[in-house]
Design a protein that fits this description.
The chain is an alpha+beta fold. The chain has helices at residues 15-25, 28-33, 62-70, 73-83, 102-105, and strands at residues 3-10, 38-44, 52-59, 87-94. It has a four-stranded antiparallel sheet with strand order 2-3-1-4. Strand 2 (38-44) and strand 3 form a beta hairpin. The longest helix is centred in the first third of the chain and has 11 residues, at 15-25. It is globular and about 45 Å long. The two termini are 24 Å apart.
């Protein structure tokens, strides 16, 4: 059962995008992606909100998230959040192991 956390980082003056760029350029994103249990760690930029960045952060299970949260890397992430004065909105989802339904498949082009 995978767990996906959507984190919306919001700031001012392009700070959310600067935060994401520094997360990538500093190597933190690569380190997180290499952690045991990480399935996805990607940033997206909403077209209608220039001051927000969406992080899709997906993990194998809660234990993997707990290990990540206990790692020294979290201090680096927190430091960057504070540097850019970001606020966060968090959504958490647990995967549906049944996959895409037959009725939904009619609307998906692969």
């Amino acid at each position: 059962m995978a767990i996906t956390v959507n984190i919306y980082y919001s700031g001012m003056n392009g700070n959310a995008k600067k935060f994401a760029e520094e997360m990538v350029s500093s190597g933190i994103v690569s380190d997180i992606r290499a952690e045991d249990g990480n399935l996805r760690y990607e940033y997206f930029f909403p077209m209608d909100d220039q001051e927000t960045v969406l992080l899709i952060d997906s993990w194998k299970d809660q234990h993997s998230i707990d290990v990540h949260h206990a790692s020294p890397m979290m201090a680096k992430i927190t430091e960057l959040r504070e540097k850019y004065d970001l606020h966060m909105k968090v959504e958490r989802y647990v995967s549906d192991e049944t996959g895409v339904s037959e009725t939904d498949k009619a609307f998906i082009k692969e």
